[in-house]
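Example (one chain per record):
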Amino acid sequence: MKKLFVIIVLMILALNAKADDIFATGYYLQNDQKVAAVYKNGEIIYTVSHEGMNATPKAIVCDENKNIYWMINIFQGTSFKYTEVWKNNLLYVSTQGMSGVRIIDIYCLDDTLYYAGYQNNEDTISVATVWKGNDFTPHWTLGDGIHDSYMYDADVDKSTGTPY
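Predicted structure:
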């Protein structure tokens, strides 16, 4: 009988336990333009919009301090213009005005944000690159600078910090 009582108490505690917060990205239309949004447990907590542009979310990650990093691509009509990465509700990094730089994916390791993509070198050859920090500090590159190399998706080995 004691075992049954303990099992019932544990089941009640499990039913009352609160799940971790769930974050997601999406967009909604406002005046025929896409507005990027971050949702926490189904409620909008952050939005980004640009007059005359469409903001389309692409990725979201959290660091160990539960800061939210989210990446959005900015389009004018269907033409890609640039990428922004936001930390919570503050602009963290942007490729606006940077020709030949494209961010494809973001990930966190400990409390550092890494963003992966490619950049053109002085010979306009694309070089796959992973940056960190908000000043495009190169962390890792792949390619010889003679032949194009691109990155379309990224993750990291949590024990070594090496992207793959």
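Caption: Residues 2-16 form the longest helix (15 residues).
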